[in-house]
Design a protein that fits this description.
- The protein has 257 residues and is mostly beta strands.
- It contains one helix and twelve strands.
- It has one helix spanning 2-25; strands at 54-64, 73-81, 86-92, 98-111, 115-126, 141-151, 156-165, 168-182, 185-191, 196-203, 208-219, 225-238.
- It has a twelve-stranded antiparallel barrel with strand order 1-2-3-4-5-6-7-8-9-10-11-12.
- Strand 2 (73-81) and strand 3 (86-92) form a beta hairpin.
- The protein is globular, with a radius of gyration of 20 Å.
- Residues 22-32 and 244-249 have low confidence and may be disordered.
Amino acid sequence: FIGDDRLMSMVLKKIKKGLFIAGLFSLGASTVWAYQGPQYLLYMPKGFGPERGHTEFGISGEGAYRNKDAVQQAGGFFNIALTDRLRYGLEVDSDSRVFHHVHATIFSSKIPDREEHNVALGFSNAAWEQVPGLTPKNSVIGLFGVYTISFNDRDFNFHVGASGNQYEKSALRTLVGADKQTSVGRLMLEWDGIDFNIGLKTSVTKQFNTFIAYTPTAKSETGSIHRFLRFGITFTDSFLKGVAPVANIPAPSAPTE
């Protein structure tokens, strides 16, 4: 069982590291911000996500554009790819309320070096109570389905889908988006069913990324939509990195007589 002990020890180290970072993020978290991980554009889900073992932690801050009366916010999130097709994410707000996200790729087809087609189903922002500060008409993505076509030779993805409203069950939103790698980072543009959002994610190192986004936030009681500038950093890792498959770890030699 030497292989099992080694595997368990390395996985536990990764989990402890993740819990430490997640604990820092929970000091001040908000539940409404742009970019929720590699399986999303800004608010809109993609049809695909990262490979098994991928983890990402993100923190962000936001401020209203030309609106001094709007509340400034900060927050964080955590995502983990449980398999190549199933991802889970969570957020914890400043009142210790937990919000869950599940993203499952149910179909995937590839033409090597050319195209890739993916379809995903899932839900976002699942919680026991309504997100603070939002009214039912301020649609928050709930159940969703999305199709993505990727043109690998151009590093360009196009996404289209539909989503329910988490707090207004009869509402249905159309989702359309695209992202492309540029010389300064990955440019993201989407229609989230309410308005257009635009963002840019830049890789600082292999593990650290920054993003900036210009998006509308929830409508105020007067019905106006406040534009927000959002900034953030993310840290990516894999809890499987450095863990050799158990089958490849040599078994101990039998004692010789």
